[in-house]
Structure formats: structure tokens, C-alpha cells
Amino acid sequence: MNNFYNHKAFIDLNPSQKEAVKNLEGPLLVLSGAGTGKTRVLTARLANLLFSKKTKPWNILAVTFTNKAAKEMRIRLEGLIGPSANSVWLGTFHSIAARILRENAEIVELNSNYTIITPDDQVRLLKQIMLDDEIDIKKFTPKSMSNLIGKWKDKGYQPDDIKISNNDYFANGKTVNVYKTYQLRLITLNSADFGDLLLHNLTIFSKHPDILDRYQSKISYFLVDEYQDTNTIQYLWLKLLADKTKNICCVGDDDQSIYGWRGAQVGNILRFENDYPLAKVIKLEENYRSTGRILEAANSLIVNNKERLGKNLKTSSKDGEKIDLISVWDGMDEAKRTSLEIESLHSAGFRHDQMAVLVRAGHQTRYFEERFVDIGIPYKVIGAKFYERMEIRDALAYLRVVQQPNDDLALERIINTPKRGLGTNTTSLIHSYAKKNNISFFSASQELLMTDELRPSVKRTLLNLINKFLDWNKQNKEIAHTDLAFKVLEESGYIAYWQNEKTIDGEGRLENLKELINAMSSFENLSGFLEHISLVMDGDNTADAGEVSLMTLHSAKGLEFDVVFLPGWEEGLFPSQRSIDELGLAGLEEERRLAYVGITRAKQRLFITFAANRQIHGLWQGSIPSRFISELPRHILNENIEGNIGADSSSYNQIDFDLFSKNASYGPGFFRAKQNGIAGINTYSKTRIDNNILNSNTQFDNGQRVFHQKFGMGLIISSDGDKLNINFDKAGEKKVVSSFVKLLD
What are the tens digits of pLDDT across the range 64-109? Predict the structure, then answer.
């Protein structure tokens, strides 16, 4: 027995966790359910490998999906094994791949100081290429082209791997040519995009088996976090590296695979036992986060998925409160009801920063934001990133050129920022010269300065700027990178530019620039900082203390809150009709996994709401509850199905759950419509009240309650032939045609 088994970090583990930590040899799949302590297991397993002296820290590769997860694991590991934790190959897929690429860059015709370009720069470069190829960028946008190429790279496709039949629907069949030109242009710029990091690794490994063998021999043990989120190229990369020892431990949860839209393949984790026939599978099912009723809801929901390995979350904690299932009239009513619950819970002692509203689609946040502002509930919409702000991108572009003068995209971004008389005509001339001579934008600028192609004033300005960059590049080796950054921003005129902007916005941007330099102090040099920035764009966002979090379900993965609100559980909205239409059963199952993720974010209280009506594109549409509601055990629900959703509503007391089934999802929206004589309700779709089913021969009288497809419920106040003056509950007084109105009384 090694010393680690006497360590508190091991003793405190439950039996399943201990089993995962003890199994060090051969392939291992750890199915880790939500809140089951997977990070503790990964860290303890790493420590056990070193305590047992089976290997050295530099012979272990541990990959995660976010820098935040990697940082947390490294901190925990340092607490267990000390400074040697820094010798472990621990980071994201892209950071590890970037390291391997820098060590072998010449094989793919790059220099070791290559630049990792940003998504914005990708789009700008593709725009240039598409215009040169006479592609209509209004019809076929550079952003779409970038997404398409990104998908190909995620699948491990080089330009020669793409068949014409796969791309002739886009850009008149020119996508392969654009992809080829784009890759050649990146080589000229001594640059790579995110997708290239792994793609170039595969090229290196396939063309040079000796290099692959070197890494296979160097890395003896592999640990992979969130394996269910791996895409095709990540899967291939891992399989190649681990093929020699097969000492690979993958930790993941097939029930939380929710990123299919960005290339994640749930099949990777499902086929693990086929890939590694001697694999051992250990299930972590003891949940340390949620109450018993919340876990029962999650288990009952996810069991309806067919493509899963299967596990059942359990807890030793109390059952807790029932899940509140609440019907509302519309989105505004939903936001109002949610805000009232938040205020009540806050009065009862729950902190705002431990409450979250998790929506399926971004557009759902509008009502909540408006309501929270109106009544003063502090909130934060998760999404904005520090490094995506304009002034930060500009500053980083300056520093990228200082680090690597051939970074054309960075130089073109700031050559006239702040404005210095180097406008479109000048940049077009330099760009054309660079393309004609197959040199960088920086080199083309230097050569043009030796000619009379430029006007004297432009020539002087450009010469001054180029000389500054040459001087800054030299000082990069002589002074601290933080001092250099301040010097660059000051001497370029960028700081003065915002100082002259006598507004609160200008002051805020200056503060952000100061914070950027502060952030640089944590890194040894400019190169390390710039690489970190390129790799850090992974959505690691958290809400500020004291604010209710408002975010999408996708953004909430990995987070937890005492109280969670899940609005919009209606057919068509959640599950998303688009996902079902595009992917069929696979789309429905991913939607159900997304619902499972939402439920398991909650620790103590969970609220699910659904509306009878939604206003979509200016039209009111009736809704039926999500089929996911029918999959929740009725005995754990606190049904708050109001008898009067609106003053005009026909009364009902509860959802008739007996009519819910695996094949149908009828609910209040259906019964309400049925009671009102409105036909044409379609199962599994947003219900519409079509004009052709409304009775145009009905006699309307003043004082009658009616429903209008666009304006909702209202009261007739006068009539003139087939024209009705109606005072609508929410739209006010309107004149409408009687054939568009349905009598409710």
C-alpha cells in the first residue's frame, strides 16, 4: 500500500471514487454524474500515480476543456504533491497541441514563434480571399465560411479531404479553393487558427511516425476531463497519443453531452469500450449537490434517452422541497412570477448570487431583464468577456505585431488606429503589393517606403510607425513586458486617444487598458501572455457576487446554484423544434440532456415554468407544455397550475397528467384551446390559432370578451359593421376586423 491511501484526500472519497483512483493501469472510463466530485477523483488519481512512483510528473498528460478547469486542477494537485505539479502536462486540448506544434512547427512550414489568430482575424482574412475570388460576401458571408472551415477542421479534414459534393451548395462550389488559399495564406503570415493546432498535430504525427513515437514514449499516462464533449479531431489526437500504453482514463457524463452544435460527439464516450476492449467502467452516482427530489426528477427525465450508458444519481441528503411547476399566461407574466419568487426567497435568506434563471434561447432574457430593472433586482447576463472589448483587442493587436511583425491581421487592424492618415487607399496598396510579391504586410510596407509609390505625408507617417515597431520589437528582449506594453500604448498615441475622449466611456476604456497591463504581470514574457489570451476564449464566465445570474442552459454547465428557475418549458421552445427538425431523435435526446443539465444545476429549490401563449414575430401563438414535463414524477411536483391565467380564462385546476405519455404531450394550452373551441392543435409543436378556423359569422356585442391572434385578450367596446373597437388587456385600444377575433364568452 502506498502512502497516498493514508492521505485524507483519499480517505474522504466514497467507495466508487476510491476504486477509480486505485485503478491506474489500462483504459478506464469513469462515468461521473452531475455533482459527483469528478475533479476530486481526477486530482486524486494524478496524485496516486506520483505517490506510487509509477511515473514522473512530466510523463503524465491531463487535458481539460477550459482554462478555469485546468487552473483548478493544478491548484488542487499542488496542494497534494507540491511544486512538482507544475511538471505535469496539464492544460486544455488547444494549449497542449500548441506546445507540441511549437516544438515541431517547421514540419508544417511554420516558425516556432507563430501567432494564433483570433476568430475576428479569421473572418477578416477570409473576407480578403473571398473578394479576390469574386465571391458575393453578402450572399455567402466570411463568417459562414469561417464556421464551415472550422467544422471541417474539427473533423480532421484537410482541403484535399473535402469532396466537391459536400460544398457545392455554398459559395458556388468555391469553398475548397478558399480553404486551400486560406491555409496557404496562414503559412505566409506565420499564423495558425484554433482549428489548426490539432490539425497540424495530426499532420505531424501522420507524416513523421518517429515524432509520434517520441511523444507516445514520453507520455505514459493520460487523463481526460469532460470526455463526452470531445469532437472528432480531439478523439483522433488522443487515440494516437495513447495507442502505445493505453493507460488512458477518461472522465465524463454522456447525459451531459450538450455541445453537438459545435462539434462534440457523444458517440466518443459511448464507444469507449469498443475502442478499448479491456476497459474498466466505474460509475460515480453519489451526488453531493442536490436534494433527493431534484435528483429523482433528473433521473426520471434522462432515462427516456436511448443513446446512453446508464447510471442513476443518488444522495444521502434529505428529499428537500418539491419542485415547483408553474403555469403562466405569457412571457411577461412568467418574468413577473419569477421575480416575485426571487424576492420571497431573498427575504427568506437566499442570496441573489445563489439564484439563476436558465433559459433555452437568448431571446427569452428580454422580459426578465426588463422586469428585474423595473423592480430593482440586481442581475447579470452572463456572456460579455473582457478580452472581447474593442480597446483590449486594439491593444493586443499592437502587442502581437511587436511580438511577431509578420502578423498582418493584427497590423492591419491598428495601422490607422488611432487615425494617423493611413486609410483604405494606403492599406489597399500595401496589401496588393504584399500579395503580388508573396510577402507579409509589414515587409511590403518596408519595401514600399524605399519607392515613390506613397505620397510624402503618408510615407513619413508610415516610416515613423514602422520604425516604432522595430524599436519596440528590439526592446521586447530588453525591458519588462509590462513596461513595454505601457510604452507601446503611450508612444502609439492610443492612450492619448482615449484620454481625449472626455466621456465616462473613455475613462472606462482607460481603466480596462490598465487592467490589461495588470493581467500581463502574471506571465513571464509577452509571448506567454499572448498565447494565454488566444487560448482563454473558452466561455469561463461567472456572475458577480450579489446578482442573480441570467444565462442560457449551455452557459450554465459546470455551475451550481441554491435556487434555479427554468422558464419556457413548452413544445417548440424546449425542446427546440429546430433541433428536432434538423437532427431528429438525436436532436431530441440532446435537448433532453440539456434539460437534465438545467435540473442538476439546482441544489435546494427548482422552479419550472411554462406559458400558455408566446408572442413570436409580433403574433400571439398558443403553446402546449414541454413533453419533458410529462417525464417528471408527479409526486415530487408542487403543481401551481392556476385556475385563472387571465381574467377571461376558462378555469382548470391542474394538468391532466394521465393524458401525458411517451407519444403525446397534451396540457393546459391544449385544453384551454379546446374549451374555447379552437381546433388545430398539433402535438409536439407550438400551437397556432389560424384565421381560417375563426367563425366570421359570429354576432359580436359590446362587453364581450374575445381573443385576437396578434393582440391577445380584450373587451369589445364598440362596433361598426365588421370592424370592432376592442380594449386589449396588454395592447390597449385597437380597431380590428371581426373575422380575426374569437368569442370567448
Answer: 988 888 888 888 888 888 888 888 999 999 999 999 999 999 999 9
User: Which pLDDT belongs to residue 713?
Assistant: 85
Burial class of residue 468, CB neighbours in 10 A (0-12, 13-18, 19+): middle
Q: Which of the two residues, 83 and 61, has the higher pLDDT score?
A: 61
Query: Residues with Cβ < 8 Å from 697, sequence gap 6 or more?
Result: none
From the CB of residue 487, how many other CB atoms can be counted at a distance below 10 Å?
16
Give the integer Cα–Cα distance in Å for 403 and 191: 12
Of the candidates 19, 22, 39, 203, the residue annotated as catalytic is 39
- Identify whether 531 is a catalytic site residue: no
Strand-strand pairing, 115-116 and 379-381: unpaired
Among 17, 18, 38, 593, which one carries the catalytic annotation? Answer: 38
Q: How many CB atoms lie within 10 A of CB 497?
A: 18
User: Residue 686: which pLDDT band, with cuts at 50, 70 and 90?
Assistant: very low
Per the DSSP assignment, residues forming a β-bridge with 712 are 708
Q: What pLDDT sits at residue 675?
A: 43
Angle in degrees, 0-180, between the axes of helices 175-188 and 142-154, rounded to the nearest 10: 80
154, 225, 353, 590: which is the annotated catalytic residue?
225
* 225 has catalytic annotation: yes
CA-based radius of gyration for the chain = 30
Contact between 580 and 588 (Cβ < 8 Å): yes
**479-535 residue pLDDT tens:** 999 899 999 999 999 998 888 765 556 666 887 788 788 778 778 899 988 887 877
SS (H, E, C) 324-339: EEEEECCHHHHHHHHH
Q: Is 38 a catalytic residue?
A: yes
Q: At what angle do helices 526-535 and 504-520 cross, to 10 degrees?
A: 110
SS3 assignment, position 425:
helix
Report pLDDT digits (tens) over 410-427: 999 999 999 898 988 899
Catalytic residue among 121, 154, 193, 226: 226
Average pLDDT score, the chain: 85
| Alpha carbons 438 and 432: distance in angstroms, whole number | 10
| Omega of the bond leading into 575 within 30 degrees of 0 (cis) | yes
The residue annotated as part of the active site, out of 17, 256, 338, 403, is: 256
31: β partners: 252, 283
Residue with cell string 435546494: 604
Contact predicate 226/251, CB 8 Å: yes
Residue 601: active-site member: yes
- Grid cell digits, residue 298: 433528473
| Side-chain-side CA neighbours of residue 286 (13 Å) | 11
Q: Are 412 and 397 in contact (CB under 8 A)?
A: no
Catalytic residue among 18, 289, 509, 601: 601
Neighbours of 474 (CB within 10 A): 11
CA–CA distance, 711 with 736 (Å, rounded to integer) = 10
Statement: the pTM of the whole predicted model exceeds 0.90:
no
The yes-or-no verdict on residue 617 having pLDDT over 60 is: no
CA distances from 359 to 369, 607, 722 (A): 12, 12, 42
Residue ranges and CATH numbers for the domains of the chain are 3-105+198-286 (3.40.50.300), 118-188 (1.10.10.160), 323-382+543-656 (3.40.50.300), 389-402+414-517+524-532 (1.10.486.10), 691-743 (2.30.30)
Pairing of strands 723-728, 712-720: antiparallel
CA distance 286 to 328: 35
